[in-house]
Amino acid sequence: TRLLTLLARLNANLGRLDPALALAREAVDQRRSAGVSPVELADSLNILATAQQERGDYDAAERAFREALTL
Fold this sequence. Notes:
Layout: H1 2-13, H2 17-34, H3 38-55, H4 58-70
């Protein structure tokens, strides 16, 4: 899951939002299933939220940011 998160961040930084979103969603799903530390899940959620924000999906970004903050 660490690799998925890194790839999501890389794609987001390159402006490739579609792959970034797909990879970030997969990373979040896998981290939830694996029961990783809250910090690791928050990292993936932050990347997801940032990509959603860049895409203009502000409601989804807000939900992901809020979830990350609660961890």
